[in-house]
């Protein structure tokens, strides 16, 4: 029994000693294992700090420069912050009523309108006619299909498709044709200051009456009519549009109905009835409702 007790105590002592002492297998494993390389994440970090124990605990900090966005990403983000009217023609933006910008001017030039860069009622109206002439849905706004047809038409200098009313030589719409008919019916009506009926007209009373008969209402005075119309160039003006006479200071003092060429219908002054006459000055502006 004493011998057994000593052997048991000795075995316990050896077991405890082996648990406390580290296993010396590091060298053997090191001979057969290849050192693993540290894996650096591919994602760019703004700041990378590495603390290394150097000589007494000093730390080395490595700072990586911030990643720069690509030029394409920057350009795309800049484009989306601009109004649609300032997007490039190549991007074929979805232009709608009241959009503004140089891309709207391109559309107006292609539609042979006075290019002022504002997507107004006249642009919508002519665009609908253009779409109908090419078998497109007449929405009055620029979509991808309309862009494709319009850029082709501009390149080949063809505006309307076959059978379009807009391709006629006169170029007048149904409304402007009505205006010209109503204007001619009143030939010989006397001039009357402040007159707005067939008993007598002043200049704006005459144009207002004619336009109302054709289906559209105008303000009372020539200045108000000028403000209420879409201003177009002389080259873009069509018979039936309004022609305004401007003073040296830029004010409007007379209005008539453009009859094509260098002619207009108007009620000019006392003693001279409504008639078709020549435009006698270059100080004129044209407007379209």
Description:
With 289 residues, the protein is α+β, with helices and mostly antiparallel strands. The chain folds into 2 domains: 78-166, PGBD-like superfamily/PGBD (Muramoyl-pentapeptide Carboxypeptidase, domain 1); 174-288, endopeptidase fold (from Nostoc punctiforme). It is 36% helix and 13% strand. The chain has helices spanning 2-20, 26-32, 71-81, 102-110, 121-133, 144-156, 174-185, 203-214, 222-228; strands at 48-49, 61-62, 196-197, 200-201, 230-232, 242-246, 252-260, 263-266, 275-278, 284-288. The strands form 3 sheets. A 6-stranded antiparallel sheet has the order 5-10-6-7-8-9. A two-stranded antiparallel ribbon has the order 1-2. Strand 6 and strand 7 form a beta hairpin. Helix 7 crosses helix 8. It is elongated.
């Amino acid at each position: 029994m004493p011998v057994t007790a000593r052997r048991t105590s000795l075995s316990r002592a050896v077991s405890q000693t082996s648990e406390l002492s580290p296993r010396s297998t590091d060298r053997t494993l090191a001979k057969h294992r290849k050192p693993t390389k540290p894996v650096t994440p591919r994602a760019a970090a703004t700041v990378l700090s590495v603390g290394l124990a150097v000589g007494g605990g000093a730390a080395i900090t490595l700072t990586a420069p911030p990643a720069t966005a690509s030029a394409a990403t920057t350009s795309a983000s800049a484009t989306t912050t601009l109004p649609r009217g300032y997007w490039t023609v190549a991007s074929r933006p979805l232009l709608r009523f009241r959009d503004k910008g140089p891309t709207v001017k391109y559309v107006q030039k292609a539609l042979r309108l006075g290019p002022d860069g504002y997507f107004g009622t006249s642009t919508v109206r002519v665009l609908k006619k253009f779409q109908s002439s090419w078998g497109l849905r007449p929405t009055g706004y620029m979509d991808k299909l309309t862009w494709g047809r319009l850029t082709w038409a501009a390149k080949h200098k063809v505006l309307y498709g076959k059978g379009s009313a807009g391709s006629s030589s006169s170029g007048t719409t149904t409304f402007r044709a009505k205006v010209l008919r109503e204007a001619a019916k009143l030939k010989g009506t006397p001039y009357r200051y402040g007159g707005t009926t067939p008993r007598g007209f002043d200049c704006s009373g005459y144009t207002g009456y004619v336009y109302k008969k054709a289906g559209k209402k105008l303000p009372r005075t020539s200045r108000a009519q000028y403000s209420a119309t879409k201003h177009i160039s002389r080259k873009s003006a069509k018979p039936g549009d309004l022609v305004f006479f401007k003073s040296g200071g830029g004010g409007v003092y007379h209005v008539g109905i453009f009859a094509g060429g260098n002619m207009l219908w108007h009620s000019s002054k006392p003693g001279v009835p409504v008639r078709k006459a020549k435009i006698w000055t270059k100080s004129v502006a044209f407007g379209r409702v």
